[in-house]
Design goal:
Blueprint (H helix, E strand, L loop, with lengths): L12 H7 L23 E6 L2 E6 L10 E3 L3 H17 L4 H9 L19 H9 L5 E3 L15 E3 L3 H4 L6
Antiparallel strand pairs: 1-2, 1-3, 4-5
The protein binds iron/sulfur cluster (SF4) and FE2/S2 (inorganic) cluster.
The site of FE2/S2 (inorganic) cluster has 12 residues, from loops.
Length: 169
Amino acid sequence: MTGYNPCAEGYQRARCRGEYGICIPHLCHVPNISDIGACRLCIVEHVVNGRSKITTSCTLNVEEGMVIKSNTDRIRKLRKNLAELLVAQAPNSRAIQDIAVRCGVEEVRYKFRNDNCVLCGRCVRVCTEVWKARAIGFVGEEESGTWTIPSVYVRIFANTATTASRCAP
Ligand code: SF4
Ligand code: FES
């Protein structure tokens, strides 16, 4: 995607990436549910009218004339650092280890937190948008219907007893 504009106006960014065979590392994106830009692994540089900005590609709406650079030195360096932070947060996750290796991480300079949850929000969004259960959410999250980047741990809402059976085997 570097250096040219393959995306027509109105295309969804995920569809655009897929159609052009572009592989951008990502963790929190799940097809067919909303994107919240939580993991930030999918960052790209996009250029509009000569101005460059870095943003998460899963939340970026492409426009006519926009140039998207997915593999610049700057992006690779930032993405590697983000992957390193994710490993520090959940060092036991095989999926995150695999992503980190693909992003070029060879050592982790940050203190391991062993949180296991990296606040990607996949579980919360699936629970809310697919199951319509709203059984789990983020601590401190306003129940306003709009997503914000989560800042603390996943919590179980009071109505879990009536909805958890959808997740249980
Ligand atoms: S518990 Fe939920 S928010 Fe945390 S890493 Fe797993 S899917 Fe993501
Ligand atoms: S996939 Fe885009 S921020 Fe996580």
